[in-house]
């Protein structure tokens, strides 16, 4: 077989650094790498159902990267790197279906064809990333556990096929875990980055709200939605965040991020000694009054020893007596999910539809509701029926052109942040580290959902979290951690996650 053919490339070993080393050494080209990824998708996607739309232009895009490299043009670290995009993110040439048959013509719905990319997709293109296609999600990204109700069918967990893959960025995680792509874009409103990353033994960055623009992404909540990367290691995730982060005029809340990104980029903080002397808070009833499973507690004890060995000073249950845990309030009839902040979805969807362009078949929330009335997501039996339990949702539905005031959400967000910052100050904490889930993954088609430790708290407060692998349960289910810190502290948290990844041999 000729040197450098697509069949020769070991996709299982590829990181961004390895990709760039391969380009530099002439081991393979970007075009050959893209073709190898498409070969892998053809081989394995039938098994995992991660990718729902393929981008045939990716091979031409990769060839242009090779031409630019051959011409001596300076290129960034993501140039030529194969990436997948979560379906709710607008990508020119493809319908944005949000996993729903009602939004896909081949399943009897209407196609929402964007006239321009979402800012995050445009940024990946400008960085030279090779966009292989779009990935599977549950309907309207409504669950953090799986994609079982997608028009494309369920996505399968690559690490443990009989368990949930994590949602709603299920397809992105499975595509990265199966090495169909090196990186993937994910999005979180309530666990949808951290859950699939942890479920499939990957790294995920849930950014501070306002760090990354989320215009052009089908919303669940303009007050909580964040876009971030899923990757196979911390460095790759940091490199992707460098591309995604920063101000966009399309998303005014990103103005708050100006001056908040580290000089030299997020990889500048990746120090194997980053945990040395740092005070790190641990999970306990002061944060959330829900215990870990027995096996999760044992695995967490092992992690504590590893962190201490890396020089961290561990602080037990720093939120005890703070009132933090008492702020959590699951939204009826849900037993686990606090949906406050999602009241604005009619307004957010109207703004999303307006951005699609003048040729979009649906331009208002009223038209959206009419087109999907046979499967009303917001109705008494719909997947988002719990929204009627939120105080301002009825008013938001009555006039989607006006954003709801949401005083309860604003109040609880303020209280979360006040207590969080007060505890971090009083305990002189540099960060927190918890098991990302309280127990192991539930069955793929069962009734149980992922029992995480930070969904709601960091989504409402808008705090960042970095999910990293930390071993396995006896069953083979992945055990992961999440590092949590103050707003805009992604650089510091990435340093901690990297130090743990390297120091614990993950």
UniProtKB/TrEMBL annotation:
Domain Amidase stretches: 33-316
One protein family per Pfam: Amidase
UniProt xrefs under InterPro entries: Amidase_dom (IPR023631), AS_sf (IPR036928)
Protein origin, superkingdom: Bacteria
Name of the protein described by the UniProt record: Amidase
């Amino acid at each position: 077989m000729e040197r450098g053919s697509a069949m020769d490339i070991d996709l299982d070993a590829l990181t961004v650094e390895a990709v760039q080393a391969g380009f530099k050494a002439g081991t393979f080209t970007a075009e050959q790498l893209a073709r190898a990824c498409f070969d892998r998708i053809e081989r394995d996607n039938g098994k995992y159902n991660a990718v729902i739309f393929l981008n045939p232009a990716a091979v031409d895009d990769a060839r242009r990267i090779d031409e630019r490299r051959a011409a001596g043009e300076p290129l960034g670290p993501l140039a030529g790197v194969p990436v997948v995009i979560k379906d709710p993110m607008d990508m020119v040439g493809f319908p944005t279906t949000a996993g729903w048959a009602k939004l896909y013509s081949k399943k009897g719905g209407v196609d929402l064809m964007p006239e321009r990319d979402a800012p995050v997709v445009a940024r990946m293109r400008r960085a030279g990333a090779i966009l292989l296609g779009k990935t599977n999600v549950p309907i309207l990204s409504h669950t953090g556990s799986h994609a079982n109700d997608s028009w494309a069918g369920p996505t399968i967990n690559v690490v443990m096929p009989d368990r949930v893959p994590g949602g709603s960025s299920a397809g992105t995680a499975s595509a990265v875990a199966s090495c169909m792509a090196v990186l993937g874009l994910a999005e979180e409103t309530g666990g949808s980055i951290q859950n699939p990353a942890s479920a499939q033994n990957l790294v995920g960055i849930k950014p501070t709200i306002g760090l990354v623009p989320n215009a052009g992404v089908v919303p669940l909540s303009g007050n909580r939605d964040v876009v971030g990367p899923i990757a196979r290691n911390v460095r790759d995730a940091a490199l992707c965040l460098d591309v995604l982060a920063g101000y966009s005029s399309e998303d005014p809340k990103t103005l708050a991020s100006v001056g908040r990104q580290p000089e030299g980029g997020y990889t500048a903080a990746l120090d194997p000694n980053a945990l040395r002397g740092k005070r790190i808070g641990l999970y306990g009833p002061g944060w959330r009054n829900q215990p870990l499973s027995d096996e999760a507690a044992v695995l967490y004890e092992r992690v504590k020893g590893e962190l201490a060995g890396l020089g961290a000073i561990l602080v037990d249950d720093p939120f005890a007596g703070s009132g933090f845990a008492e702020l959590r309030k699951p939204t009826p009839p849900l037993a686990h999910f606090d949906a406050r902040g999602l009241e604005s979805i009619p307004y957010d969807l109207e703004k999303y539809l307006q951005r699609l362009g003048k040729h979009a078949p649906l331009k208002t929330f009223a038209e959206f509701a009419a087109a999907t009335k046979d499967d009303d997501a917001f109705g008494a039996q719909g997947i988002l029926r719990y929204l009627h339990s939120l105080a301002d949702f009825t008013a938001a539905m009555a006039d989607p052109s006006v954003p709801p005031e949401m005083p309860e959400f604003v109040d609880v967000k303020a209280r979360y942040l006040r207590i969080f910052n007060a505890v971090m100050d009083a305990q002189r904490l540099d960060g927190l580290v918890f098991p990302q889930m309280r127990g192991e993954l539930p069955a793929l088609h069962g009734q149980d959902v992922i029992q995480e430790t930070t969904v709601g708290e960091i989504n409402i407060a808008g705090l960042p979290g970095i999910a990293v692998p930390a071993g396995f349960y006896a069953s083979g289910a992945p055990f992961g951690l999440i590092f949590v810190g103050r707003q805009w502290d992604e650089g510091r948290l990435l340093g901690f996650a990297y130090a743990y990844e390297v120091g614990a041999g993950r």
